[in-house]
What does this fold into?
Amino acid sequence: MKARIILNADDYSSMGVEKYFERNFPGAIDDFTKAIELGSDDPETYFNRGLANLMLDQRTEALEDFIKVIELGYHISRNMLKLCR
It folds into this structure.
């Protein structure tokens, strides 16, 4: 019987970062989304997903993620928000 590895939100977030740096932006978004679905409220997960969305010119989605980062109490540069226009 094979051992089953259970991944948590932090695991998916880490895999998303790896995929982002490999320029696999759709894969990164999928992993960040899975981390969020598993309960991550880490602003870095939302910020990183926002960056990946920007790389794919998905500005509306990026803006939604950046707004969530602000709602979680973290600061984002106005210039970053301007990129979502």
User: Anything to note?
Assistant: The helical segments are 9-21, 25-37, 43-55, 59-71, 78-82. The mean pLDDT is 92. The CA atoms of residues 16 and 31 lie 5 Å apart. The chain has one domain: 9-82.
